[in-house]
Specification:
The chain is mainly α and 302 residues long. Helix content is 64%, strand content 0%. The chain is globular, with a radius of gyration of 17 Å. Bound molecules: manganese (II) ion (2 copies).
Length: 302
């Protein structure tokens, strides 16, 4: 029996809120080394802000802000709208965000100045910036894997065009959609094995702790902690204490683990801490996206 629409919407909320939690939690330890984190915090497990951006506790960064920019464009259009997404990215960049990656800035400027919606393949584009913001896509395309793949790559190529980034987006998307519909951890693991069969670099069975913004290391960190922990909280704590691009590994782990373990698994002491306006919007827009999906439409017309 398929899960109820309420269950799936709650998992979608878990995914988007999980992303925001991982972003806010990890921002504190971004660019730190594990031993620096250990000597400063023991185990970092509280949303306290700070970090290299000197954030207020609960402040989210580009990972959540770009996800919201994309989500708003999709909800406003009632479906896919690449120009709307690009326009929202421009507006976001002009709003002087607290952080913006160099590849994102370059891509958004290329749209702003030259109208370019698809950047050419570039060896330097193997960062994690296209994965960190992709959560709206698997939500609004649930039930149509082909549309998900097309939209994931289109949004990615606004800024990042590299086979590793593309592959990471697709794998994360498949894991998310499967998790939304109730997949177990073995099914999720299978998607990582498909990825590794095509791109062996992503293997993570001998994970050694590199957690940079290089999308391969980012995904290895996320996969390692996803499959060696038993709760949302444990997974996120593991990831952000690895340092490196901790807000982004936190965001990506948060979206997958949030969908997998569900809304009730998100620690309320973390939810209470994140920026209230962001929390409210993220929570609501996750449901709005899911209700646009072919899966949802079929359930309610069923
Ligand atoms: Mn960030
Ligand atoms: Mn980051």
């Amino acid at each position: 029996m398929p899960p109820s629409t309420t269950t799936v919407i709650d998992r979608a909320r878990g995914a988007f809120l999980g992303l925001a939690l991982g972003d806010a939690l990890g921002a504190t330890t971004e660019f730190m080394l594990p031993n620096e984190i250990r000597s400063e915090y023991g185990v970092h497990r509280k949303i306290i802000g700070g970090g290299w951006l000197n954030l207020k506790p609960g402040r989210v960064t580009d990972d959540t802000e770009m996800s919201l920019a994309m989500a708003r464009a999709i909800v406003a259009a009632g479906g896919w709208d690449l120009v709307g997404i690009a326009d929202n990215f421009v507006a976001w960049m002009k709003s002087r965000p607290v952080d913006i990656g160099s590849t994102c800035r370059k891509g958004i400027r290329n749209y702003l100045l030259n109208g370019v919606l698809e950047n050419p393949v570039n060896d330097w584009d193997a960062g994690n910036g296209a994965v960190m913001r992709m959560v709206p896509v698997p939500l609004f395309t649930l039930g149509d894997e082909e549309q998900m793949a097309n939209c994931l790559l289109a949004q990615a190529h606004l800024t990042h065009n590299h086979p590793f980034s593309d592959a990471a987006c697709i794998t994360t998307g498949k894991m998310l959609q499967a998790a939304l519909l109730g997949a177990d951890r073995f099914e999720l693991h299978r998607f990582t094995q498909e990825l590794i069969a095509e791109y062996p670099k992503f293997h993570f069975n001998d994970y050694r702790g590199a957690a940079s913004g290089y999308v391969v290391e980012t995904m290895q960190t996320v996969f390692h902690y996803l499959f060696t922990t038993a709760t949302f909280e444990e997974c996120l704590i593991g990831v952000v204490n690895q340092g490196g691009d901790a807000d982004t590994t936190g965001a990506i782990a948060g979206m997958i683990a949030g969908a997998f373990y569900g809304l009730e698994s998100l620690p309320s002491r973390w939810l209470r801490k994140i920026d209230k306006t962001v929390r409210r919007e993220v929570d609501e827009i996750a449901g709005d996206l899911l209700r646009l999906s072919p899966w949802y439409r079929e359930q309610v017309s069923g």
